[in-house]
Amino acid sequence: MTATEVDQRPDSRPSTNESRHTEVEASRRFARKLLAPSLVALILITQIPFLVTIYYSLQQWNLSRPDIRGFAGLSNYVAVFTNGYFLPSVWATIKIVGGSVIVSLLLGLVMALLLNREFFGRPVARTLMITPFLVMPAAASLVFKWSLFNSEGGIVNWFIGLFGIPPVAWNTDHPVFSVMIVMIWQYTPFFMLLLLAGLQSQDREVLEAADVDGAGAFRKFFFMTLPHLRTYAELAVLLGTILMLQLFDPVNIITKGAGGTKTLPYLLYERAFIGQQVGEAAAYGVVTVVLIIVIATFALRKVFRVFTEEEGR
Question: Which residue ranges are recorded for the region named Disordered (predicted)?
Answer without folding.
Answer: 1-24
